[in-house]
Amino acid sequence: MDILFLGTGSAWRLPEYSCRCMICQKMTELKEERTRTSIQVTTSRKILIDPGPDLLFHMRRYKLQAPDLILITHEHGDHYLGMDDLLAYKRSMPPDSWRPIPVYATETAWETIGVRFGYLLGSLFEKRVSEPGVDINIDDTSITPFKTVHGKTARGSVGYVIRETQKDKKVKKLVYTSDFIDVETDLSILHDPDVLIIQSHWLNEPVENRPSHMSLQRALDFIKKWRPSKRMFLVHISGGDQVPGDPFNNTVKKTPPIRPMMDPLTQKPYSVPMCQQDWDNLAVKLCEDNSLSCQMTVPKDGETFTF
Ligand SMILES: [Zn+2]
Ligand SMILES: [Zn+2]
């Protein structure tokens, strides 16, 4: 199974336009960027998860071919608003040779997505419904949606478990959570994946978790429970943590932590990561301090992983 991280940032990219906080400034200086979180998973099929508003940029940058199917996690704009850019594939083919791409989302998510992109259904796309617990089977690949909790404005949210059965019958398993604060039921299918891709919207759990997102502090509980064996990836990075001394800590995007995670050596809060190098260092330290045997990675846009 091949994973390509098309984008790794939150709903507004990083650095955020017009934001002068220390994180956005540092990333600008270093020419680092995180586009909206989206991934391509390749088994015997090309699966695109969350065709967000950066999709055309991703198609060009990574020279993407048309996906065989699309999975949408929920009805927030950063997870589906790029869908009509896929018309580029159809427009460059002879008439009558295009087969509509199956697009999976929950019925609740479709209530929103269908209003925006209903005019493309039947021609560019085929509407398919993701039902939590009901497998989508294609050849050697099985995809299971699971219900996630992501607040009142995303009642249709789900994550996906993707399993690929190899010729020797061994199964490779990826758990992809997308935006969430909890799962409705802790299903056994979520346990012991080879790879876990989990949201990390903040480093520390904020006093006010307004949009119901996952912090890395909270994610550690899920990581310890689900026990990925080969790798865990943190995505949907937002820059929403307050950095001590930052004059822009008073902006809407910033929220103070409830009880920041402490470095056991210094008994001081971990430094808030501001750039890729900071994230790389913190990931190693957090694994050591929490006795996690699986490597934690905060991928860059364009990073790949094969397992
Ligand atoms: Zn999002
Ligand atoms: Zn969301």
What would your notes on this structure say?
- This protein is an alpha/beta fold.
- The chain has a single domain (2-302), classed as Metallo-beta-lactamase, Chain A (4-Layer Sandwich).
- The protein is built from six helices and 17 strands.
- The chain has helices at 22-29, 55-61, 87-91, 107-117, 216-226, 276-289, and strands at residues 2-7, 38-42, 46-49, 69-71, 101-105, 125-129, 136-138, 141-149, 158-165, 171-176, 182-183, 195-199, 231-235, 262-263, 268-269, 296-297, 304-306.
- The strands form three sheets. Strands 7, 8, 9, 10, 11, 12, 13 and 16 form an eight-stranded mixed beta sheet that branches.
- Strand 14 (262-263) and strand 15 form a beta hairpin.
- It is globular and about 65 Å long.
- The mean pLDDT is 97.
- It binds zinc ion (2 copies).
- One zinc ion (ZN) binds at residues 11, 76, 78-79, 179, 236.
